[in-house]
Amino acid sequence: MLSRRTLFAAAASGIAATAVSRTALANLPDPVYSPGPKTAPPPQPSSGRPFNPVVTLNGWSAPWRMNGDWKEFHLVAEPVVRELAPGMKANLWGYNGSSPGPTIEAVEGDKVRLFVTNKLPEHTTIHWHGQLLPSGMDGVGGLSQPHIKPGETYVYEFQLRKSGTFMYHPHADEMVQMAMGLMGMFIVHPRDPNQYRVDRDFVFLMSAYDIDPGAATPKVAEMLNFNLWTWNSRVFPGIDSLPVRLGDRVRIRFGNLTMTNHPIHLHGYHFSVTGTDGGWVPPSARWPEVTIDAPVGAMRAFEFDADAPGDWAFHCHKSHHTMNAMGHDVPTMIGVDHRGMTKRLVSLIPDYMTMGERGMADMGEMEMPLPDNTLPMMSGSGPFGPLEMGGMFTVVKVREGLARGDYRDPGWYRNPPGTVAYKLNASSINAAPQPPKPTHNH
Amino acid sequence: MLSRRTLFAAAASGIAATAVSRTALANLPDPVYSPGPKTAPPPQPSSGRPFNPVVTLNGWSAPWRMNGDWKEFHLVAEPVVRELAPGMKANLWGYNGSSPGPTIEAVEGDKVRLFVTNKLPEHTTIHWHGQLLPSGMDGVGGLSQPHIKPGETYVYEFQLRKSGTFMYHPHADEMVQMAMGLMGMFIVHPRDPNQYRVDRDFVFLMSAYDIDPGAATPKVAEMLNFNLWTWNSRVFPGIDSLPVRLGDRVRIRFGNLTMTNHPIHLHGYHFSVTGTDGGWVPPSARWPEVTIDAPVGAMRAFEFDADAPGDWAFHCHKSHHTMNAMGHDVPTMIGVDHRGMTKRLVSLIPDYMTMGERGMADMGEMEMPLPDNTLPMMSGSGPFGPLEMGGMFTVVKVREGLARGDYRDPGWYRNPPGTVAYKLNASSINAAPQPPKPTHNH
Amino acid sequence: MLSRRTLFAAAASGIAATAVSRTALANLPDPVYSPGPKTAPPPQPSSGRPFNPVVTLNGWSAPWRMNGDWKEFHLVAEPVVRELAPGMKANLWGYNGSSPGPTIEAVEGDKVRLFVTNKLPEHTTIHWHGQLLPSGMDGVGGLSQPHIKPGETYVYEFQLRKSGTFMYHPHADEMVQMAMGLMGMFIVHPRDPNQYRVDRDFVFLMSAYDIDPGAATPKVAEMLNFNLWTWNSRVFPGIDSLPVRLGDRVRIRFGNLTMTNHPIHLHGYHFSVTGTDGGWVPPSARWPEVTIDAPVGAMRAFEFDADAPGDWAFHCHKSHHTMNAMGHDVPTMIGVDHRGMTKRLVSLIPDYMTMGERGMADMGEMEMPLPDNTLPMMSGSGPFGPLEMGGMFTVVKVREGLARGDYRDPGWYRNPPGTVAYKLNASSINAAPQPPKPTHNH
Questions:
Q1: Is residue C89 part of a domain?
Q2: CB 3.0 to 4.6 Å from A94: which of A51, A80, B7, C222, for a disulfide?
Q3: Cα A246 to chain center, whole Å?
Q4: CB of A313 within 8 Å of any CB in chain B?
């Protein structure tokens, strides 16, 4: 037990220090480590072909070096400690200090060389999901290459044939390694930076974990009953908002590496899916949508013109995916013991209600005594009180005053008078016109 | 316990009487209450812009009053008792006496004013899913407005910018309130009544409940293992059929507020999705389908020309969604004790079959001793015997003789001779031609 | 118990012998029985309209006889024994000796007569999913016809109105009969053999089973927690590869009769869905894809030009669907007891890792003592070692040398030098250029 805890502690501290010995791997590109779980603002590329960089929600993009014609990246697979939201850290597996690993950004036509060093306790590989490449670079352990053993470094080289939205993840002990958070995004920009150009381009990956309340390490044999549904290994209120300037053309791209569909819903806008991990969707084939059902092992990009100012909820529409660990195993509070009692009561009194006497909304406001390293089920608060959300939830904030390159959270929006739902009180009721008879009553 | 039961009893009786004190809310539009769980025939609108009304399956449309330019509706959120099918009633939460609440129908360009009175035991809000509106009218508790406390009335006002298929539901303690059935449809008709015109236009909402056999109140912390899969909070054989006149252009629209996809399958026709909650699908983007996979938090409208007479099954294609409560907890009949025994037997005799000696079809015919207020798992009967269905199943009945405005169940269809599957008996076998050798056998 | 085992033993041996008494059903077409679980190469049709036959993955096509204008098939529903992969046989229900039953192939415009003999222990029917036919031929027990009782033979007759990808399955005691594997594909070829022509045309059906380790008969009341995810009732490494000649136009069609979506992912190619069970998707409506989310009760056909040689993984992207029975109930090896211990440990030591000390990859190589008739969870091996896969996984093998009609497994592909990921060793690291400072580090 102790050795396991020590291993993770070492991994965690290794993020700040240098986890790869420069002596041993002298001529590889220096692996660069995660700057932390906040959204990193996108810098312009300083070498290679020009492109308009994406913003990785609660993530960052991998630096590279040019080596002749080749754009070189160095990924280090290793145990990491990831803050899921303030108050909870998880022992995950990631790349270069974070789960997900850094977003790889390159340009159509680029030749990329990807060094992959395995610092995990078991073998791994990387599959470049969606890329058109030679079969021997496809990263399927046993099929396209031998597995990368702990301590080894492998090299992948291929030319990027098409722009689009892709991802990378292991194809080795897959269920375990993805259940531990080992994955990242791979964006290929068009050769012409004006093609498919937008003003804001956000990306994230969806993953799910099953972590018992009070624990920090996911159970890896889980199939359906995950209890933490994340965007880039973050849960609300740990997910940053998406700040957008009024009038911007906005693209949001996401991939799904959980075990179930996620119907991703944006309030306030009608939009279209414009891309998948197979390329760009032709305009004739686009559907108007408010909810995109993202399949497992697939990616979607959607776009809209940000013409409606305000704070717009953006979330998975499966309501248990916008909650944190349901705490079925937190014995004396919400969970098991109470339900055991309920079950016995129901057999005696059929109509006994299996929940709080008045619903669960109180939980959004309650300070419950949770085990250490456990998040509340429903959390976060907005300008008007508790949001009662967790998991896959955040807010797209559309603002008139925002600057072009500004990705800081602009705070909450106050709607102009007359565009806000309002409470009737005694006087406003009296002031309202007399009700005529309803026009039809059936 | 008793107080809980009393509360529901009061709510139930309140449907018949008047649940809102006219003195207290003198100048609000009079809330109108559900006429019951049968499909209400659609009356033509008597005020406001003209439109072709929809038919809500096992539901009804909300009346309104015109107040100057404004079309005013009054929704009252409250506990309701809903008959899921004859023989079982559930304690749900709904609007104006029913779950789902009444369908709201209005016209593109209409200014709507929606009064929402909270008579639930906890706070709520209403989110107008899919509508383009000011952020402050979006109904996300804590984000766009303060929650509506019990006893309070809130007012939402906005202009309807696009025609289409939308819904309304709480954005407050969401998992609980939707697990209790609090939701409704919102249809915006095109400004020109001839645009997108069809002859029959049906709508319904899908919801799921987890109610222990013998109980009446859903368990609200359920995530996956629901046992009652409903259309408009009804299960087969409680779902009305969809009567259609031969040759009619038919549209069916539905929304999904459960926690999983529903692949909705219609027999006998190939059709196309023509609309979502984001608008109308352009003809160039339409796929031919027989099954529409409805995502959670999304709506689909599909259309077809009813050129094939007959009784056509219409159902979710997940077979456990066309069954009622599986009764895993009904100890001495289908469920747990037997399976416990089976498990032990399997360890001794691997090939022991974990079901009835001859499948489960007998259940469609059996009269099993079920607990009070519990439906059979497989039920209903047609012209040729037991249908062995429950849950999300009904029949589209296409008839030559049906009148244009007739929505009564036309009864079962008898196919003309020669278009019916027939049983071979001794004489018909003998009359059949001698079998040649099979043309190829591989 | 014994009688049940005897029944299945009899059924199994009955496949080799003749299960239908020729005396009793003298004038029906002779039912032809499965040639076994290997992929049968497609013979050209020797009677009726010409067509380009499909290849059923680990399956076969039903022979027919012409009887005047009518193309006659004879399906016999009965218990069968199916090898899921070498080392495990399951007691299923199928048609003509196999589960799935034989693929029915016919041509647009054909008049088909389908004799269905019920040799199951309970009643059944056949629904011709996706076909446009008279209501009385639709096969919904109780609604379109009386159920077919054990021992009876029914006859369905209809003309095939549209080409496309369809299936057949019971519409009687549906959950049980599909959980037992009773289903098959039904391909209607276009009247003009050059329309929609491809060089390779593969088909398969997806089904799922819940079979306890050491048992052979599925549990039929399962709703979500299946443990064997199959293509044509086969699991990897029992699923044949798909051999394709370099440059071929390839179509792969599949149907889903499980209880959940399957995101089917092909490596190395971008492709489009070209058909559903509702017909052919017009080019204007096609999306580029690498993963097709196949809904339940639906079929998809996709196409691509096989321009990239190699061994391309082809699988469901839900990672627990590419594993065989997870063995939660195999007490002393992977499963329950260990986890019970873990749960107790987690309450004491929160960071204790709920899996092997170093992940699960060892399992791909381990020889574990499994109960008889149980497959390893992760299995198969390729040219570079263990593949660590099970369930819905196989390989599309694109080869230059393959002959037009050759469907034999061409073995593993060796990529040319320079197109293979390679391991860095001390000397190659030293030979690499000195790393410049990373171009940007954020």
A1: yes
A2: A80
A3: 24
A4: yes
Query: What Cα–Cα distance (Å) separates residue B74 from each residue in B71, B205, B209, B332?
Result: 10, 20, 26, 47
Find out whether B278 and B130 touch, Cβ atoms under 8 Å: yes
Number of domains in chain B: 1
With beta carbons under 8 A apart, name residues in chain B contacting C284.
284-285
d(CA B405, CA B412): 19
Residue of A nearest to B274 (CA): A287
Joined together, the tokens standing for residue B442 give: 């591989």
Is B152 exposed, middle or buried, given 0-12, 13-18 or 19+ CB atoms closer than 10 A? middle
Chain B hits for A357, CB-CB cut-off 8 Å, are: 4, 121
Domain of residue C82, CATH code? 2.60.40.420
Residue C143: which of B311, B353, B441 has the nearest Cβ? B311
Q: Per the domain annotation, does B347 fall within a domain?
A: no
Q: Mean pLDDT across the stretch C413-419?
A: 93
Give the mean pLDDT of chain A: 86
CB-based contacts of C184: which residues, under 8 Å, 6+ apart?
C75, C95, C100, C101, C102, C103, C104, C167, C168, C169, C205
The answer to which of C79-83, C107-111, C156-160, C336-340 has the lowest mean pLDDT is C336-340
> In whole angstroms, how far apart are CA C62 and each of B96, C159, C288?
57, 18, 34
| Rounded distance between C-alpha atoms, residue C128 and residue C114, angstroms | 11
In angstroms, rounded to a whole number, what is the distance separating the alpha carbons of residues B282 and A283? 10
Report whether pLDDT(B159) > 80. Answer: yes
**Whole-number pLDDT of residue B220:** 87
Q: What is the pLDDT of residue A383?
A: 96
Element (H, E) at C166: strand C164-169
SS3 content of chain A, % helix, strand, coil (to 5): 10, 35, 55
**Residue that is written with structure tokens 């199928």 in the block:** C94
Do residue B143 and residue A288 have CB atoms under 8 angstroms apart? no
Whether residue A166 lies inside any domain: the answer is yes
**DSSP β-bridge partners for residue B424:** C153
Cis amide prior to A121 (ω within 30 degrees):
no
The subunits that touch chain B, with at least 3 C-beta pairs less than 8 Å apart, are A, C
Residue A30 Cα to chain centre, angstroms: 26
pLDDT in tens, C6-16: 333 333 333 33
Of A121, A217, A278, the CB nearest to C354: A217
Q: What backbone phi and psi angles, to 5 degrees, belong to B428?
A: -65, -30
Do residues B118 and B150 make contact, with C-beta atoms less than 8 angstroms apart? yes
Of A96, A142, A85, A136, the C-alpha closest to A119 is: A96
Say if CB C77 and CB C124 are below 8 A apart: yes
Domain that holds residue A112: 28-192
Whole-angstrom Cα distance, residue B331 to residue A395? Answer: 47
The answer to whether residue B187 sits within a structural domain is yes
**In sequence order, what DSSP letters do the residues of B217-272 get, joined into one string?**
S--TT-SS--SEEEETTB-BTSSPPEEEETT-EEEEEEEE-SSS-EEEEETT--BE
Burial class (CB in 10 A: 0-12, 13-18, 19+), C412: middle
Give residues 146 to 205 of C whose Cβ lies within 8 Å of A: none
**What ipTM score was computed for the predicted complex, to two decimals?**
0.88
* Ranges assigned E (strand) in A160-305: 164-169, 184-189, 200-209, 228-231, 242-245, 249-256, 262-266, 272-276, 279-280, 291-294, 298-305
A·B CB contacts under 8 A: 283
d(CA C293, CA A294): 9
B329 touches chain C (CB under 8 A): no
- The answer to whether the Cβ–Cβ distance between A355 and B178 falls below 8 Å is no
Residue B144, CB half-sphere, CA atoms under 13 Å: how many?
32
